[in-house]
Amino acid sequence: MKITRYGSLVGVAMVATLTLTACGSDNTPAAGSSTGTSSIACKTGSIKASGSSAQKNAMAAWITAYQTACPGATIEYSPSGSGAGIADFTKGQVAFAGSDSALKPEEQGPADARCKTGKAINIPMVVGPIAVAYNLSGVSKLVLTPSVLAKIFSNQITKWDDAAITALNPGVTLPSATIAQFHRSDSSGTSDNFTKYLTAASGGAWTFDHSKDWTAPGGQGAKGSDGVAAALKTTPNSIGYIEYSFTKEGGLGVAQIDNGGGAVTLSPETAAKALEAATIKGTGNDLALTLDYATKDPGAYPIVLVTYEITCEKGLTGADLDVTKSFLTYTSSDAGQGILTGLGYGPLPASLAVKVRASVAAIS
Question: pTM for this one?
Answer without folding.
Answer: 0.76
